[in-house]
Structures are given as C-alpha cells and as structure tokens.
Amino acid sequence: MKLTERVYLVGSGSAGFSLTHESDCHIYLIDGGSEFALVDAGAGLGKASILDNIRTHGFALEDIHFLFLTHLHADHAGGAAGLREAMPHLKVLAAKDMAFALREGDEKAIGLDAGKKGGYYEPKYRFEHCPVDFELVDGQVIQVGSVAIKAWETPGHCAGHLTFVMEDSGKTVMFSGDNLFFGGKILLQPLPDCDLQVHIRSIAKFAGWGIDVFLPGHGCISLKDGQRHIDEALSWPERCLVPPSFL
Ligand SMILES: [Zn+2]
Fold first, then answer.
1. What's the gap in Å between 34 CA and the centre of ligand 1?
2. What is the domain range of residue 71?
3. CA-CA distance, 83 to 27, in Å (whole number)?
4. If you compute the radius of gyration of the chain from its CA atoms, what whole number of angstroms results?
C-alpha cells in the first residue's frame, strides 16, 4: 500500500490493517531511489506474505539494503533473521543499548517471557537471534539512496527504542514505533524496562517539530498534521495525567 511518495506499507497485523500475520507490527518500506529500506520486521510468522507485498510493489528483495528496528519486542524484531535470510544485502540496524538482545535472541531482555505468559505468543514461539550490522545512537543519520533517515533515542515504552525521522517531498515523516500512537495514546507494560517518566520525555523531544506524516508501529496512521498526536499526548502530563492507553 503506497502511503507517500517514498513510503509503502508492506506488513501489518491485527492491531493494524491485517495485511500479514496477526502478530505483525506495521512494516514500512522506504524508497530511496537507488537503495531501499524497511522499518521493522514483524514477528517472523508471516514472512512469505511480507515478501509478496514487497515484490507486488515492484521492489526486488536484493535491492533492500537496510532494516531499521524501532525496538526489539518480538512483534517488531522477531522477523529480522528471516528477512535477512531472504534479502542478501540486508543490513540490520538497532539501538546500541539493546543490540545484544537481538544478537543473542534473549527472550527475557525483550520481555517475551512475559508476553508468552500473557498469552500473546505461543509457548513454542522463538525469538530468532540475528546479527546487528549497525548500532544506532541518538542523532545518527543513515543515508538510504537519496533519503537521509535520522534515528532518535526514545526509551520509555522499553529500553533501546528508536524513532526515525525523514524528509519526503517537503514533508517530515516520523516512524514512531511504539513510542506514540494515533490520538496521543501510549502503551505501558508491567515490564522492568518500561518507564512512564522516561516515556513522556521521549515524546516531549518532538514538541513543536511540525511532523506531517505520522507512522506508528500499530493502529491508525496520519498522512498529514501528524504533530497533533504528539501535542495530544503531551497535553495529559501537563494536567498531571497519564496519556490514554493504546490497548
Ligand atoms: Zn513494543
């Protein structure tokens, strides 16, 4: 599904548009002209349909050079190993803080043990370990063809969460992962690396940015006036209240 001049939606689960496996987050493809990138990988249970969607839009798997991971929760990063296998030139990029968890397939570090107990994943589901080619830190810019993608550290929903921002035909596009959802909603979980105060600071980082296109990890998206979701989220702590929950 083409969203903007340079961004396509190639995967999405039941908390979104049900394009691919129900456990998948939104998976975006960025068209940099001569190079291409994905944002997030899904859970790894619906690889074939993601690859089909990429090909259907006319992109060759060998031309996808980068996989940007917003964070390592299984619905976003569980599919990284499978995509890397299917795409010979794919480089995997994740936050420096948590890269070890993907390299080691550390299910406890990413909260998957709790996710299994909560019934969100089958007990037999495995978080596939995967090499990380680049460890990203705050403010780092990665060039994908003619598009510059900037990584911002946005912990709070979990450790090692990144938000990506790029320019697309005069519009500022934000890939917010699970840092922020449509309507200013957030997702707190009773996990050791989830922290409300840190989370709010990670949203406040984007106050006044004039974001146009708002592309979160799940749920509804905005193709214009994306800044309103940031403003809405920040209006709650201003009143000493917690932003509403996405789920
Ligand atoms: Zn998450």
1. 31
2. 7-238
3. 12
4. 16
User: For residue range 44-88, what is the model confidence (pLDDT) as tens digits?
Assistant: 999 999 999 999 999 999 999 999 999 999 999 999 999 999 999
Count of structural domains within the chain: 1
Q: pTM for this structure?
A: 0.97
CA distance 194 to 121: 19
Q: What is the pLDDT of residues 221-233, one digit of tens each?
A: 999 999 999 999 9
Please give the distance, rounded to the nearest whole angstrom, from the Cα atom of residue 161 to the centre of ligand 1: 9
For the chain, give the mean pLDDT: 97
37 CA to centre of ligand 1 in angstroms:
20
Q: What is the CATH number of the domain that holds 213?
A: 3.60.15.10
Contact 13, 21 (CB under 8 A): yes
Looking at the domain assignment, is residue 245 inside a domain?
no
Taking the centre of ligand 1 as the mean of its atom positions, its distance from the CA of residue 71, in whole angstroms, is: 7
The token pair at 210 is 């004039």
